[in-house]
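Worked example
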Amino acid sequence: MTPSLIWPRSALALLFSSINRARRASLTAEPYLRRYLIAFVIGAIAVCGAVFFVELHKPWMFYWMYAGTVMRLVLCAEPVAHTRPVLQWRRPRVASNPRDVYGWNGRRSA
């Protein structure tokens, strides 16, 4: 990869990853946060189209401030993992069919 293509590819990766992350978070977010995430996705796609077709060069400072705020909303919208594991009862294994760690049967077939 040539050095002249590193910056545009990384900028596009940041741009589209923020859109994709907000879109995925809108599927599990609370209804009061979902509308902001959907609005960000639609607005970011509109800004991408405007930059490509109209040659806008000045909106990036405002876009990244808004993207940072929405990424914080994404973190708030993600479900929180439980800190304590839930213990489940398991039946003890019967040792009549010995298997190794890979699941292979210990007996040879004739």
About this structure: The mean pLDDT is 78.
